[in-house]
Each structure stands twice: as C-alpha cells, then as structure tokens.
Amino acid sequence: MERALRSAPAHALPEALAAALEGARPGLAGVRLLVNDYHSRVLLPVPPLGAGPGDGTGVLRVRGTDAGRAFVSRRPVRHSPRRDGGGAAPEVLFVPVVSRGERMGVLELAGADPWTDDELARLEEVGEVLGAALKVAWHHTDRYERARRRKRLTLAAELQWQLLPGHACTGDRFSLAGHLEPAYSIGGDNFDWSAEHDHLALTVTNGSGTGIQAALLTSLTVGAMRNARRSGADIAEQASLANDMVHVRYGGREFTETLVMRIDLADGVVHVIDAGSPRILRMRGTDVGSVDLEQQLPLGMFPDTEYRPQRFRLEPGDRLVVVSDGVFSARTPRGEFGAQALEQATRRTRLQDAAEVPLTVIDELIEYHEGADLDDDAVVVCLDWK
C-alpha cells in the first residue's frame, strides 16, 4: 500500500489505493474516499477523476451514521445493509483516515465476505498510511480541497482557511484539536500551533473587522508571529514584533487580540501572554474555571509595546479549552452565552477525546442561538495534557 501511494501522482491516491486493495483482497466490491467538510458535520465523497464537482450524492452525515462513528472514534466500523428484496448486501467497512491524530476523512470499503479481525487491524494501519500520504498530497493538487467544499468559499474565507495548521495534533505528552466556525463568513478569528521536541507553541487570534479586511489583518498577524517564532524568538519577542508589524501597516486603527502560549513538554509549565480577548478555561477533574491572566494591550494598538509573559503549570489529566470572543461574548435575544454556559459545556466534554471537544462546544453555542447564524467567528481549541 505504501509503495502504491508513494509512486502515485498526488491527484490519484484514491485510485492507486483502490487498485492495491483490490489486488490484495479479490472480491472487493468498491472503494471510496470521503473527506470531511469545513464544519466537520458531513463526509463528502471525492469524485472520480475527470468528474465535475459533487452533486451531493453519497454525502454522509457525521452524526448518526456508521461512517461518522468511524470518523469520530478513529476506529473501523462495520455496516451490514439489507437488500430491498431481503438478504444481506455486501458488508461495508468504514476505516478512519488519520494523520498524526488529525482526522482527514473515511475510507469506505465494500466486500462480499465479512472482514476478519486481522484484516481490520491491517486496514486501520492502511488508514494511517493513507492519511500521511493525503496530508502531503493535499498541497500538490486541488482535488481533495474541492471535494470538501459544499459551496464556493468567499475570498476572505479562502485566505483565512489557508492559515490554519490543521484540525488536530497529538504527541506523547499532549492531544490538541481546534475548530473555526463558521467557515464561510470570516471575522478574523484564527488559531495556530507548532509542535517541537521540547515545547508546543499555540496562539489564538481575534482580529478586528470582517471580510477581506479582517482576513488580511489576521494573515499579517499570523505571518509575523510565525516569522518571529521560526527565527527563534521567545513569545515576548513574537508578540512585540507582530505588534510593530501590525502598527506600521495600520497605524493603530486596526489591531488583533491574541493569546500567545508556549507549553514546555518536560514539566508542563505554560508561558503565556494575554494580549486581548481570547480566554483559557482549565478543567481539572470535574472542576472548571478560568485561568486568570493580566490582560495586556492588543497587537498593533501602540508602537514599541513591551509584553510580559506569565506562567502557570499543568498537571497530568488537565484539559485547557481556549476560546475567542465569538464564543463567550456571543449574544442572542436570550442574552450572552457567557462564562457559565461555557464552563458547563466544557464540563460536559470530560469523557470525550480532545478531537471531539471543539465541535461539541461549538454545537452548544449554535444550539444556544437556536439555529440562527453566528454574528462573529468562533474559535475553540482543546489541549489535553497527558
């Protein structure tokens, strides 16, 4: 399988894998790759080569389907459909496609014979191999990106989505996941991370404005932070340099409220700069509360601003949930979503994997809005400290 994927063009991974699988298991009735949409609420089939955009045929919901269970749990799930005239149709197996903890989609396999436990274990590994190959191929072709779009993105959304590092990342000491909602109406919120051998860098940004203006401002901020971080600057220097870049461009008229963090992997010490509105909640056992920090000036408000990191320590089993103001300050005719609702939503995730938490909190926020569109972007990032 690895050789087939390595030798295939980036745009032809599903076909290369299907051919290899059919050669290894004669009688395989069909192979299909489905990728999750931007909201991670449906799984969309990658159309055959040469086909136009998908027409919605074969779309599967994440919630309430076997394919969705495989996607969420990151474990293979069997499905045995019944034919209309009675009798069993070929058994269908849904295999999660995962890259370093990030859920990329689901592989749908239909076969006439039941799958053995040994085959399930091998196919789970095939899903990981495909996920790693797909993560690389994604940057060489638009085929998979097109497949996950149910409608055309605005230019602002295009700029904003390209900034995201992914949806999840795991290591020996931590599990990390993030979600941006909504995808198609951009208000400048963003998250970014980088996992190194000795630390984890994490930022959550809440830019001002909407549309292209917000996307460009956030792009400048995230680009400046990455440039400083990749040059070896500590978080105080990262914040200071990004502040200067934004102020030079906008003269204090626009700014970004940003949370900048560095988590030392050896001892769980968190170094953090709170430059604005994003908030941190910590769940320790069943206790949930805000991490109190000294709020400093947003990036870009004044030139030559000096930022001072603060510190706190994580204990094994701690969960951090970081949210933008589009979550805790969201308002409806019922009032503000607020800290209490956010704490309750966080407490209810205590039995969930970190990868599920951001969307669970977002779903509660949408339910609070009673299905109405959100007025502002909402970012949720979850960090589990092992």
From TrEMBL:
Pfam families: GAF, SpoIIE. It comes from Actinomadura sediminis. It comes from the Bacteria. The lineage of its organism: Bacteria, Bacillati, Actinomycetota, Actinomycetes, Streptosporangiales. GO terms for molecular function: protein serine/threonine phosphatase activity. This is PP2C family protein-serine/threonine phosphatase. Keywords: Hydrolase. Its EC number is 3.1.3.16. Residues 171-385 form the PPM-type phosphatase domain. PANTHER family: STAGE II SPORULATION PROTEIN E, STAGE II SPORULATION PROTEIN E-RELATED. Gene3D superfamilies: 3.30.450.40, PPM-type phosphatase domain (3.60.40.10). InterPro entries: Bact_Sigma-Reg, GAF, GAF-like_dom_sf, PPM-type-like_dom_sf, PPM-type_phosphatase-like_dom.
